[in-house]
What we know:
By secondary structure, the chain is mainly beta. It has strands at residues 3-7, 10-13, 18-25, 33-39, 46-52, 58-60, 68-73, 78-83, 92-99, 117-118, 122-127. Strands 2, 4, 5, 6, 9, 10 and 11 form a seven-stranded mixed β-sheet that branches. It has a four-stranded antiparallel β-sheet with strand order 1-3-8-7, with no helix packed on it.
Amino acid sequence: QVQLVESGGGLVQAGGSLRLACVGSGRTFAGYAVGWFRQAPGKEREFVATIDWTDGTTSSAGSVKGRFTISRDNAKNILYLQMNSLTPEDTAVYYCAVGPRLGGFAQCGLSPKRCPYWGQGTQVTVSS
């Protein structure tokens, strides 16, 4: 069993930055993909970014590419999301999740059972 706890959300001005963290406990992330989804009010949960815990391969949604960077700390079992150049459209609850590596992870947004572990979410609000 894996417990995931997100942190780092908050209120920022447009153009600002935040760094989210997701701490895993219970067992290592090794062998899985780990990443981020977000859900804005009235919208579907959408894929943001993922990293393969084994080799560090990353993937991100086009809407955040060039602004958000996903990274990991293997020793501490922590997942990060560095968010720069934030806009009000980035306002959402951000969730970390653990799922299958190398394919299929992005589908966890609409099919959450594809990712067996989810955090509770952290609110990111960007003001204009």
